Amino acid sequence: MNIINSLFSKRLCVCLLLSFGVFGAVNIMAQKQSLSTVHENERRTPYPQIGQTLYINPAPLLVPKNRKQADCLQFELSQQKDFSGEGNMLSKPVPWCMFNPHQKLSAGKWYWRFRSVSSSGENFPWSETMEFVMTDDVPTFVTPTFDVLLKKLSGETSRLNCFLDDKLGEARQKMYTHPEYNRMITSGREGLAANYSTDTLVSNHATAMVDLCEKLHTAYVLTQRDVYANKMVQLIRWILPSRVTDRQLSNDFYAGDLAYLLACSYETCYDRFTPQERNQMEQLMLRIIGHYYKSHFAGSMENHIFNNHLWQFTLRRLTQASLVLYDKYPEAHEFLEYAYELWTARAPATGFNRDGIWINGTCYFSANAITLYYLPALFSHLTGTDFFQHPWYKGVGKAMVYSWPPHSISVGWGDGHEQMNDKPLIIRSAFAEFLHRELKDPYAAWYTSIDQRYLMDDEMRLYRMVRPEAKEKITTLPANEPKATWFRDCGEMIANSNMADYQNNLCLSFRSSPFGSGSHTQSTQNAFNLHFRGVPVYGSTGYYMNFTDPHNLLDYRHTRGHNTLLVDGIGQPFSIKAYGDIVRMLGGENISYCLGDASNAYCGLNDYPMWIRNFANQGVEESRENGFGETPLTLYRRHIFLLHPDKVVIYDEMEAKTPVRWDWLLHSPVPFAIDKDTKLLTTRNEAKQFTSVAQLFSNQACDITQTDQFVVAPDITKAVRGEKLANQWHLTASFASSKRNRILTIIQVQPDGIKAADISRQGNRLQCGDWVIEAELNAKNPAKLFIENRVNKATFSYGTKKVSVGDHEYSLSAKEASLLYDCVNGQWKVQEMTDIPVQPTGAISKQ
Length: 847
What we know:
It comes from Bacteroides reticulotermitis. This protein is of the alpha+beta class and 847 residues long.
């Protein structure tokens, strides 16, 4: 079981086999860093430089937009500081702010610089020289230059789905026996039934039309029946006379839909249109490309951490429009090249994420799924290089399974986490089926064997009916499936009691993310979710009725809606600067552990213009009364464990410059039974037939309260998706004002028929069933935690220099290290780890 991601194993910890009485350790101490952000929302610092992390080899060169002084930028990259030597790379002047070397960079120091170049050819002075060090452990993913793609594209008879052409003839012969044939025909009939002949504002219906076009296109490509193509032509002939306004095009979803509607019909039915109609279509597509390219894409997209809508839909749609026009219009050619370079530099998931998890929220992965399938499939075909070999794609199957298990609501984070679906969305099923088919991903294969709702998906049906199915049917998870996985780049850890038994699985999900909060994520640093039998035991609360309404701002998105901490009632701002980090993770068969550090997350008010506008537009003040403001917090570290199979332990370390009230939060879909004397918190889920018991331990007194009320209730009139806005229960354990505090929490989740173990306590030593837990709760003393299973001797230790492990005494390399003694792949091992540094891509010191 590879608990530590292999990409980082050389840096993070040394796993030592405990056998024959031999002990030894090598421990890498973390370098403390003081950063205003790990990543910059809008790039203001050139990347890469010394002190910044390289996520891929070759690393893209990125320049802030405000450093571009003329029409174009030119880049130079060398291993010689004076840029002499034969290996120098000098780019052509480009109208964007990025450069991809398109070749593997050898290990060692590299130097780079840039300069502005005017359209008349005037060269501005070179920038300062920046340097970075490439090391052998950085994952390699090399893409060809754009001219390779262009050469292949020029020989293609079709463009939009050229990667399917080689199997199309065979698919047509077999389509009548394909399990989706009848669904394809039914969907095609929906397209044939459309009638906009009496509508005077047909352009308003572009989004509805694009869905119809997709269904008609699939049916036509496979059956070759004119009736489908003629209907596509009719849709366009209805829309062309209807005026498309700039205001309509300012909606990026609408603009993208219209671009694809035109591009798909233009290519598929080219000879069925008159020359005048084709020219009208071309000019409208160029207008859409022009509307977005200069103002939203070139210079901006490569420098923004993640622009939701443009990545979800618009980039793909405008790439498709540029594909059908690139050889006729220079502006379409330029956008196609830009899209290719942008994908290489910043895709598939910010460019600073190799985990497979979706940083912008589990639910919002679905909005990106088609683009994540289509563009790399297209680029792979046109370049002869497999774009799915990027590290992110190698991890996405597993991430999908962990963050949204089968027959469960999402255990992950971000907008839509409360989706009423008791199983993953249809498009997730379709994407998993694609991963199984093309990448032979074992997690996606298992996922697909359980959830076959992809059969209802229209968008990827043409792909499924043309490409050969995977020959091997996989109905089990990999034999070495770990009980916990660390998604290091994104700052998430997910542990399961038994993923294979997903109907009875206990799932612990923890987030402390270097990407902070904002966009479609919430202020959830050092927060956890706990699910059993597919439903929350404790989870994030609120309802996603609107991106910016008062309920969203003060409950759903605010820290108070999640299982973490408030400081004097103050939460974390909606900002990338409000970051956390998972600095340690260890695991085995009996103990899954990670340590989150959210010490930087309670950092004042929102600083992003969008959120400042949103608060103003809603009339909501960022006041202390509303839970926003500066705090004197200096330390918030949360150690969290799944003691397999049914216990969770949390050990919180908190410190502040001045005394503060510590509000420890826990949220449940059902009410708590509270014993204020013993700090025992009990919830009962009647539908799923289980009980959870949590107990708090601290040397400081606390007052425990609960409510089923929000600060601002969700607006029921906005429940357009059939949501049931059930009450949710919010528990707050308010600890008396102090500069330091320690809190130990023990949670037990038991199905009916099994009673939670009684917890006995002697000072700092507690016994819970087979587990002994000893925690230093006196905040004046150094933090210390010891956990041992009395039966199998699985052991965790933190804050102690020497530890008895089995029959031996083990000396740690550092007193503050974490040690785990557990069974890994059938062998008992010692793992030791101290904090690892964050992986910055922005400013490397506080401004």
